[in-house]
């Protein structure tokens, strides 16, 4: 293990200056049930439709459901990476529109703990596929744990999903506040899902943005609104991403607009620090903060 860690550290210096590293994005919400996983899946597909190579990582370990949303049976999950000593390529599933996917698994009998040994193995495995992608999307589980916070600190960007419901807005603000306690500088984007209309969605975005700016002294970017659309539930019932099930539906158009807006925004965004995702994971999980 010491030899592996030494070899990895030797590689990190050269990786930090490379310009072709993928953008890492964590999708989070203050609570469950706001459509986070559905967004993560369809956003990854939209990236692919815009010519980007995306890897979708279901980090809701033990309660993942993205494979169900796609109607795909995952023979291996992230837990098998450690328990069966598999490689990350053994886990990769080819999803719709050319995206790759790694399942989080569901119905696990015990709580999964990402200790230092597992963390080092995961880092080594991630490094082996990193440069195959333009974007790596991490669909995080609801709530905050020690492991999830460390992952968030290593991300290039964080997307926060909320709905117009007061409890959802409050929870989204709380999770943003919690992240800011660890790192005020991580770029964050805000998306409102299940809005009754555009006006309601924009009011929610602006209200939350103002609260974050006023009380947390944090600038958060507004990415867009997804309107409430029964198409989503129909697509879930058919186990097909709504972007493919009904490409002309309002929810699909909203999603494509959000993806297009993001790709346009991020072109003008240059990272001030060129610390790689891998080296940040190494620092937070293996070396400690």
Structure overview:
It is a single chain. By secondary structure, this protein is of the alpha/beta class. 49% of the residues lie in helices and 16% in strands. The chain has helices spanning 2-16, 36-49, 66-70, 78-83, 88-91, 116-129, 146-154, 166-182, 198-216, 231-237, 242-245, 250-267, 277-287, and strands at 23-29, 54-59, 93-94, 100-102, 135-140, 157-162, 188-195, 221-227. It has an eight-stranded mixed β-sheet, sandwiched between helices. Helix 7 (146-154) packs antiparallel against helix 13.
Helix/strand layout:
Elements: H1 2-16, E1 23-29, H2 36-49, E2 54-59, H3 66-70, H4 78-83, H5 88-91, E3 93-94, E4 100-102, H6 116-129, E5 135-140, H7 146-154, E6 157-162, H8 166-182, E7 188-195, H9 198-216, E8 221-227, H10 231-237, H11 242-245, H12 250-267, H13 277-287
Parallel strand pairs: 1-5, 1-6, 2-4, 2-5, 6-7, 7-8
Antiparallel strand pairs: 3-4
Helix pairs in contact: 2-12, 6-13, 7-13, 8-9
Distance between the termini: 20 Å
The coarse overall form would be: globular
Question: How much helical structure, as a percent, in the residues?
Answer: 40-55%
Instruction: Characterize the main sheet.
Output: 8 strands, mixed
Q: In oligomeric terms, what are we looking at? A: single chain
Q: In terms of structural class, how would the helical and strand content be classed?
A: alpha/beta
Number of helices: 13
Strand order of the largest sheet: 3-4-2-5-1-6-7-8
C-alpha Rg, in Å? 18 Å
Number of E strands: 8
DSSP strand content? 15-25%
Q: How would you state the average pLDDT, rounded?
A: 87
User: Segments where pLDDT lies below 50 for 5+ residues?
Assistant: 5-18
Compressed to H and E, one letter per element, the order equals HEHEHHHEEHEHEHEHEHHHH
